[in-house]
Amino acid sequence: MQNRAKFGVGIGVIVVALAFLAWLGYGESKTYYHTIAEYQALSGSARNHRMRLAGTVAPGSIRHVTGGTEFVLEEQGKTLAVRYVGSDPLPDTFVDKSQALVEGRPSSDGRFVAEHVQAKCASKYEAAPGGDKPAAPAAATQTSSM
Amino acid sequence: MDVFGCFSLLLAFVCAVYAFVGGIFAIKTRHPLLVKSARQAGMATCVLIFVATFCVEYLFFTDNFSMAYVVSHSNRDLSTFYKVAALWSGQEGSLLFWSTLLSVYVLSVLIAYRNKNGELMPYVGVVMAGVQIFFLTLNNFVENPFKTLASVSASGVLEPFTRMDGNGLNPLLQYPEMVIHPPNLYSGYTGFTIPFAFALAALLARYPGEKWIHLTRKWTMIAWCFQSLGILLGAHWAYAVLGWGGYWGWDPVENASLLPWLTGTAFLHSVMMQEKRGMMKVWNVWLVFCTFLLCILGTFLTRSGVVSSVHAFANSQIGPWFVGFIVITLVVCLVSYVKNRDYLKSENQLDSMVSRESSFLFNNLLFLIACIAVLSGTLFPVFSEWFTNNRISVGAPFFNKVMIPIGLTILFLTGVGPLLAWRKTSSDSLKRNFGWPVIVGLIASIILGVIGYRDVYSLVCFFLCFFVFWTIVMEFYRGAKVISARSGMSMMMAAHELSMRNTRRYGGYVVHFGMVLVFIGLAGAAFNQDVQKAMNLGDSMKLGPYTLVLQSADTKVEKNYTAQRMIVEVLKDNKQLMMLYPEKRQFQGNEQQAGTMVAIYSTLREDLYVVYAGMDPDANVPVVHAFLNPLVKWIWLGGVWVVMGTLLALMPNRRAALGVATVPDTATAPAPALTPTATLREGHD
Predict the structure, then answer these.
(1) What class is the A32-139 domain?
(2) Is A47 at the interface with chain B, CB within 8 A?
(3) From the list A15, A22, A135, which residue is nearest B72 (CB)?
């Protein structure tokens, strides 16, 4: 019985320590998903969360400026101005009309400041001609760091 | 050929249903002919799936652009090599490929055990057929690869038509590793079906003893080896192709492949507890069940994209099917367990905190916690949306915070576990076994700290790596010394002889050594540096000991793509070292698609990783992004050792020559507490 108690304590310590680390990591990296419409309706502290928004890159909107790249995302008639400031090069699939997922926080000037951008070339990989099924999730490229 | 393939696939489904239903009747009636016919239906299913797969490949090779799948994933200019890989580049083909690889395993099992284990095999056949039915349902009725192109004509009827050329293969997949990575990973995913089938069958049949574990050991190791190799190849592909300088981003698809690996690794260790001490029987059965379910979940996450995109699940037709299959499997496992749980009673109890048993217990516990952490992190968006209506995801910091301590503790146990005695270890044997490894580890980490590797986790990792390495060296040395003294062989020959006599034990050590190398490589990530610069011709930039000079740029036209290539000269300590050629490739196809080719100069000390990041739009000059990633090569080297160790462990034991006693277990020699039955089973250590 004494052995069982010892094991119980050992296991308990491990689980509690890891749960604490998980909680720290969660606080540091939690990111909210929103649609552009939802994002624009956010108010108060919810606007300061780290978040992830998806949309289609508006044709002709990609502009390279000092310190980053600016573009506009569109989704269901709503638009969002984004500035990408990450250090990684933008993925090759990031072009006009590609589906992009941006991650970052809003800035005071109204733009969304993205640190990470993922993109997938929608028209190319999703719809097979003659079919209408999505395919190949591998088409998404990622810019992030370990 | 498309009709032929489509028909084979349908017939395979019929055969699988017969193998399943007939198998159940065979178990009920025990009629030998019925048993035989169910088995043969199982074999026919496999052969028919092979035929269907061959048909898809044939359609690719003959550039049959009336087929929707061929049009989406190939074009005339695509090289032969990649036409083979085009099979698994999309949804329909991937699922068919899953069935194919599963069939390889199923057919091997059915043939290998056709005249053996008569009590158990009908059950195994039924479980395997059940899994095949699920995938064949998807192949036939949900994601059929044999769809032809058709359009509605003026008169309102559907008319087939043929395209002149296809859309081409996704450029990200046009890389040699992408041809071998998915088959490896899928072989891992599918391979765990076999231990699952045996475990469930043994439970249903109340098959006596630990025989199912002996029967499935080989299969589990083969699946595990493929899974490990698949994960590493995937990491290498991400490293060499995606161009962000890393190899692991805690992406849902990556995590999905890690999950069954974690439980599978736990299982490979915990079976030893059952074999040696008759403990953890329930645990083992559930580990196998979970591993299989995680394989299905992994396939589901990879194919449906449920985590990576908000809308993917709704769009994907296979989502509900997979969820349904997972639920059914879980219910079957639970019911079989509840009905037969008395058969899984443990024979022994834990005796001491410092024993082999407890090290296995903690090893398993950590693998399980790791699995739960990765699983919850991966599925966090899905669950948070369920409970709070807010879709929240967690990123790399979450995974790193939890997984680094777990990984280091498991590494510690890798060194400690094998040297602890069963039941109880004396403090005397602890000192003798661990004195030197601790000293070696300390010296090595102090030296590494002095020469500049200063990071707490990394130094702990280096210490543990050398500690584990030295325990392995000592194990080989002690065993080889005994053989060498008795037979007069040289130490090298004796070490070889030793490994061949107990392949499982020493193969395991080689795998552990491979993991040590992997950990050394992972520890290097703390010291990564990078620099990015828009460069005119002749400009240079410095990174660590290297200076990069942009010499020139050129354009290279190939059959399937046009490459823009930067010619970068690398200097080290102002002496010319080599040239690197990072590229951007524009692939032909209906749309603009680009691919990055990273140029890597790889040494044991570090990788110089150079990416051509595109043109700077203001200055109109190329941007070069260079990374200095220390020790990455050790990860790939470790992978080679893991595979070699697994192969060694799969080999049969060589018998000791006459007159030469078997090598005593060094850890247990001073504490002769082993029960006689355990000593007899030494070969399975």
Answers:
(1) mainly beta
(2) no
(3) A135
